[in-house]
Amino acid sequence: MEKLPLTLDLDALRSFVTGIECGSFALAASRLCRSTSAVSAQLKKLEHQCDAELVVKQGRHLALTRNGEILMGYARRLLALNDEAQRALKGELLQGEIRIGMQEDFGESLMPGILGEFRRHHPGLRIIARVDRNQALLSALNDNALDMALLWQSENPPREGKLLGQCQLEWIQHPELEISTLLAQGEPLPLVMFENPCLMRSRATACLDRAGIAWRVVFVSHSLSGIWAAVQAGLGITLRTRVGMPGNLRVAGGILPSPGNLGIMLVHGQENAADTGAREKLGQLMEAALLNVR
């Protein structure tokens, strides 16, 4: 009689996938409402079932082995099918459309993972996504063109929302730009900024004014990609968070005064056809993704 193939443990697969997505099994344990030891035990069980090492430590983070990479794709598909079956039995499969917006800083770093995970949970739901600056997203919310948006917290927010966390603002520059030399020579600090109105531009200039540091805006961009391109070209320094910062740039360190933190808000639009459950799920995914970037 032919031996039946081993059935992989779905709970162990979920811990495996969540651990990699969160970057650590401690964060995965919190997200799954389990102890860290329980999640680690599930990974060991899965490795025993697969008869292969799936994960290795790389510094403070986790990395997949070759076998782990092979299993990851199957694991996500198995979990998605399992979750879809559960929702179908409960009558919870979502249909229709949801419109989400995200500030430019989060577009490339967070959007792909969030949308991919959400799509796996709700394959029947049409997603319309928009990446833009704060003011444009707020206008879209007011015009009922978006159901929800992930924004930077403004000084006097025009809409109520949920504060998901804080990001440290940083002075970001090309490594070859000699900021200390410029300051020692009494040269104005060259700034690369968005056009006004801009939260970070206001924070940057106010911070420098308080410290008595002369500045001048040498480059103005309409897009975040333009900001990064100008800083990479060594034209000047900018004020952003580390979210989405190109790898060839660096934080200026203690040379300049600290500009403090900036809050991240999840803001909902008007109630409409978008399902409340879909909004809640998207909010949870955004909050979980932000754990890895703050």
How many helical stretches?
11
Per DSSP, what share of the residues sits in E-state strands of 2 or more residues?
A: 15-25%
Q: Report the uncertain regions.
A: none
Rg from alpha-carbon coordinates: 23 Å
In whole angstroms, the N-to-C terminal distance is: 55 Å
Order of helices and strands: HHHEEHEHHEHEEEHEHEHEEEH
Helicity range: 40-55%
- Class of secondary structure makeup: alpha/beta
Instruction: Enumerate the strands of the largest sheet in spatial order, edge to edge or round the barrel.
Output: 4-3-5-12-6
Mean pLDDT over the residues: 83
Topology, number of strands: 12
* Inertia-based shape: globular
Let me know the largest β-sheet: 5 strands, mixed
Supply database-style keywords:
transcription regulation, transcription, alpha/beta, LysR substrate-binding domain-containing protein, 11 helices, LTTR, five-stranded mixed β-sheet, 294 residues, three-stranded antiparallel β-sheet
What would you note in describing this structure?
It comes from Phytobacter palmae. InterPro entries: LTTR, LysR_HTH_N, LysR_subst-bd, WH-like_DNA-bd_sf, WH_DNA-bd_sf. Belongs to the LysR transcriptional regulatory family. Residues 8-65 form the HTH lysR-type domain. Pfam families: HTH_1, LysR_substrate. This protein has helices spanning 10-22, 25-32, 36-50, 66-89, 104-107, 111-121, 134-142, 179-184, 199-211, 224-232, 276-290, and strands at 55-58, 61-64, 96-103, 125-132, 148-152, 162-168, 170-173, 189-194, 215-221, 238-240, 250-251, 261-268. By secondary structure, it is α/β, with parallel strands linked by helices. The strands form four sheets. Strands 4-3-5-12-6 form a five-stranded mixed beta sheet. It has a three-stranded antiparallel beta sheet with strand order 10-7-11. Strand 8 (189-194), helix 9 and strand 9 form a beta-alpha-beta unit. Helix 2 crosses helix 3 (36-50). It starts with 9 loop residues before the first helix and ends with a helix. The mean pLDDT is 83.
